[in-house]
Amino acid sequence: MSAGITTEHAVVTRPMARGLRAAGLALCLSLAAWAAQGAAPERVVTLGGSVTEIAFALDRGDRIVADDLSSLYPEAATRLPRVGYYRATPVEGVVAMRPDMVLASEQAGPPHAIQKLTELGVNLQVVSDQPTVASLYRRIDQVAAALDAKSAGARLSAALKRDLDRIQAQPRSDRPTLLMVNRTGSSQGAGSGTAADEVLRLAGLANVLAGQQGYKPLSPEAMTALAPELIVITTSSLDALGGMDNLLQVPGVIATPAARAGRIVVMDDLLVLGLGPRLPQALQQLQDAAGAPARAAR
Question: What domain count does the chain have?
Fold first, then answer.
């Protein structure tokens, strides 16, 4: 009888099979979410570097089965399967990890991908992720509650507040500072409304681009006019430029007071831009760099 099955019938059944697989996947995810109600999650996908870092700081790293490309710390997070970048969330990649919870930064997207995860029955928990310290505290509380680690969350928040209070009690230098990134092949500086601006402010530094909103391209003329006495650049940005020697060849950089005094500091991307639980470490690093004696540029 099998010889009687026509090609036309075979073609028709392929989309049917895909539909059945999709329906089965949605059912499995719904059942997983239902089973997870009231139980601590065991298979978590994190979307957002700070979210991942907080989960590990709460000693819940063993629950994470995958994270995204922005999860740069701790090292153990970089060894996990990656599901892409949290601002361009791949639905299939997330679903393939069979999570019983997805912990996502509120900056995760695009919106249609987040909506699709919800429609598939994924247990999606979205946490605060604004460029403020208040948001950081909320993020810790939300991640801790989601991972059944409220006590650890309270301890982490208390330690964070203690360290921040200590660092902010130190005298401000108000040294004019420029934070540079290189994301698209051209250098940009961080203005107001960014996590970088908040970190510079908390460190007692004066952001030379505070009058600008968001990230702005840096022309040689702008570098000269801004006259930063301290330049901060992220590790990945320096790598993209090909190292410190190449940074000093970027038009306008070598003429800045920062370059002439040798005050160029390279910082881990997530540390200085993530506004995460290592914030006190970032502030101390910046304060140390601002207070370092001048030295000849390379």
Answer: 2
Note the Cα 250 to chain centre separation in Å. 27
CA 238 to chain CA centroid, nearest Å:
18
pTM surpassing 0.90? no
pLDDT one-digit tens code per residue, 2-32:
333 333 333 434 443 444 344 445 444 544 4
- 77 shares its domain with 101: yes
> Is 139 part of a structural domain of the chain?
yes
Contacts 24+ apart (CB under 8 A), 90-98: 91/116, 91/117, 91/120, 93/66, 94/45, 94/47, 94/66, 94/122, 95/25, 95/29, 95/120, 95/122, 97/43, 97/45, 97/65, 97/66, 98/28, 98/29, 98/32, 98/43, 98/65
Domain boundary among 164, 185, 206: 164
Same structural domain, 245 and 156: no
